[in-house]
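Here is one chain, start to finish.
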Amino acid sequence: MSGNEIRELFLRFFESKGHTRVKSASLIPESDPTLLFTNAGMVPFKNVFLGLEKRPYSRAVSCQKCLRVSGKHNDLESVGYTSRHHTFFEMLGNFSFGDYFKREAILFAWEFVTEWLKIPKEKLYVSVYREDEEAYRIWNEEVGLPADRIWKLGEEDNFWQMGDTGPCGPCSEIYVDRGEQAGEERFLEVWNLVFMQYNRDQKGNLTPLPNPSIDTGMGLERIASFLQGTKTNFEIDLIRPIISFGEEISGKAYGENYEHTVALRVIADHLRALTFAISDGAFPSNTGRGYVIRRILRRALRFAYKLGIVEPFLHKGVDVVVDVMKSAYPELVQTKGFVKGVIKVEEERFLHTFKNAMPLVEEFINRALEEGRNFLKGEEVFKLYDTYGFPLDLLEEIAKENSLSLDMEGFEQEMAVQRERARQSFKIETKEVKPIYQHLKNIGKVSTFVGYETITSQSRIIAIVKDGELVSELKEGESGEIFLDITPFYAERGGQVGDTGSIESSKGTFVVEDTQSPVEGVISHIGKLIKGTLAVGDQVLAVVEGERREDIKKNHTATHLLHSALRLVLGDHVRQAGSLVGDKYLRFDFTHFQPLTLEEIKKVEELVNEQIRKDEPVVVEEKEYREAIREGAIAIFEEKYGDRVRVLSVGDFSKELCGGTHVSRTGEIGYFKIVSESSIGAGLRRILAKTGRWAVEESFRDSQTLGQIAQSLGVAKEDVPDAIERMKEKVKELEREIQKLKFELAKMQAKDRIKEEHIGSYTLFYGMLDNVDGEFLRELSDQLRHNRQGVLVFLASRKEGKLSTVIALSKDMVGKFSAKELIKEVGKVLGGGGGGREDIAQGGGAKPENFEDTVKLLKEKLS
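Its structure:
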C-alpha cells in the first residue's frame, strides 16, 4: 500500500465515522507565539481544546504536515542517524471535541488497523497509563486483547499534557510487532491516542474536564514503513525517490557505507522540510523560524560535502519532492519555481562561505594575537557560525594552526541569547486574540458582510465593547468598538486595510476609524461616538467612506495585475510574500533575487497599464479550494483559506484567490505608477506603487522635481542623467586628488622620521609616524625593502594613544627571521600583539611610550 493510499484510506475511514475532513494547516502556526512551526496534528485545534474557539463540527480528521527540530528524540543534529525521526513528517489524526471518548477512540483505532489496514491482530500490542483502568478494560474486555499484550506504563510515557498547566490526560499507544529479526526496534509505536479528561492547575492539581476530548496521532511515515516492510522510514515510497536523487548526484549508493547512508538520509529529509516550509512562507534568515530553515539547509549541504558534492544541487531535488507529494498537496506545484530559487540562492551563498568569511576569520585571529589572547571569543565564534554558517570544526582547525582555541562556553551563551531573541521576535509578530472576541463568536455575535455589493446598510447593533469589556451603550466622547448584525465595512485582511466611515441613528453618530476581524465572523468597528448615544439593539445606518473605498479597490486590483506582470517579466519564481493595500498607495512584497533594472520596471508598468487601458472585466467566482488550485489560481503565502474560496480573474492575465474588494473593470484604476523598488531581505523585494488620482499626482511631482534639477544643472530634462554622471566623475577625481595629497603629506612625514641604521650585514629601517593608516605603512615598508638585501623594516603609527605596527623583511631575510614571530614579540612590549605572514606582519599596541624599547629589541635580534 503506497503512502498516498494510506493517507487517503485514513481520511475516508474517519469520514465514514462522521468526522469532517480538515485540510492540513500551514507549517507556520496561526496566532500562536509559543511555536516556531506546526509540530503536531493537534496544533490547528489548540484553541478548540482550550475552549477558546468553536468549530461547526465536533469530530475532525486530518493529515497535518509537521516540522519538528527539537524535543524528545527530535534534535536536528540526530536526524539521519536514527531510523524513524524526521524534521518534516505527516501526522494522521482523528479528533473529538467533547463528542466521543475512550471507548469509541479505541474501537475506531482497532477497526482501522485490523480491518482497513489488515494488520494481523497477533502483531498488535498496546500501552496504557498505569492508573487508567478504563482504557485497560476496553482493550482487554471489549477489544479482546490479552493481558500480556497490554503494557501499563508510567506518566513519562503514557500521560500527555499541552504545557505545564491546562488540558491533559492519559494516553494509549498502539505498537506493531516487526519480529525478532528487528532487534531493538522490534516493537514500533505507530499510533498515540490521547484522552484529554483533566485540567492541571498551577499547583499541579487535576480536575475533570466538563467535555473530555480525543486527540490522536499516527505518523504516516512510520505506518507506511511497517506496511511496506522497510527497515527504516527512509525506504518508503514517499522518501526513497529523494534518496535516489541524492545517489544520482553523488554517485554514492545508499546502504553500502554508513557515513554515506546517513548523509543521503539527511539530504532527503531536509529537502522535504525545506520544500514544504518555504512553500508555506518560511524564508531563510538569521532570526526565528528563518534561522531554523537556514540551519536545515546548511546541514544538508554539510552532509552533501561528505558525499563529495561541492556544487549547488539541493534546488534540483525540489522537483522530486513535488512529484512525490503533489497529489496530496497540489499547492506545491505552484510554489515549486519559487522554492527552487530560494534554495539555490542560499546554496550559492553558503558555498561562498569560505571566501566571504575568511577575511573575518583572519581579522579575529589577528585581534586575538594583538591582544595577547590564546582563544577566539565566544561572540566571534558565534558571528562566524551564525552570520556566515562557518562550520565550527573547520574554524577550530584554523584557530589551532595559530595556537588558538575556541571559547565554546561563550559561544553557547551567545546561542542561548539568539534562541531567546528568536522567541521574542515571534511574540512580537503574532497577534494574540483577546478572549472577549472569541466569547462574542461563541455567543453568536457575528456579522454578515455585504460590502461586496454595497457601501451602506440598515443594521442593528448586536454588541458594544469599551476598554475590553462588554457594555450596553456608548456616550458622546467615548471610544469603543461596535458590532453589527449586517455590515458593509471590510475588515482588514489579506493586506487590505479596514474601511472607515460612520454608524448613525437618530440618537447618535459614531465615526468608524478602522475595521478589524480578530476572530472569523466577528467584525469590530473601531472608533469614537462624536454625538449623542448608541446602545445595543439600536437600528442604525452603516456608511462606508465611499471615495476611500474606491481608491482601495483600485490599489487592490492593481496588486493582482502587478503580481502577474512581475511573473511575466521576471519569471514564475516570483510569488507574493506580503502586501499592504491602502487608499493612497499599495505595497507589494515578492520573491526575487536581484534588483529590478530600469527596463524591467518600465516593462512591468507598461503591462499593468495595458490591462487598465483594455478595460477588462474583473470576474469573481466562488469555488472549492482544491478545484481553484487545480485551475491555476494563485494562493498567497500568509493567507488562511477555507474549503470554499473567492477566485478573482482578469481575462487570461491574472487569476488569484482573494477575499478583498475590487473594481468591476480594470479601466476604473485609471493609471498605475511604480514609486520605488527595494530589497527587504534575502530573496525578497518590495515595490511601492500608486493608482488613479494619487498616481497622477505622483507623476506631476516627479515632473516638477526633474524640471527643478534640470534648471539647477543648466541642462534640458532629458540630459539630467548625463549631467549627474559627469558631476559624480568630477567628485571621484577630486577624492583621488585628496587621497594623493594625503599620501604626499605622509611621505614627507616619513622622510623626516624614518631612520636607517646598519647593524653588521643587516639594515634596520624604523620610525614612528602620526595618524597614518595601515595601508600606507604596508606600502611604505614594501618600498623600503624592494630590491634590497638584509633589510628589516619596523614602522609604527600613533593615533589616539594607540599604535598600528608593521614588520617587513626583504626576501633573503625570510628563513633567518619570521615577521610573524617578531611582530608578536614586539606586541608584548607595546601591550598588544600581531600576526601575519613570514615576510610581512601587522600588529598593534596600547603603549606608544615603549616604542624605543622595541627598536632596541630588534637591534639585539640583528646583532
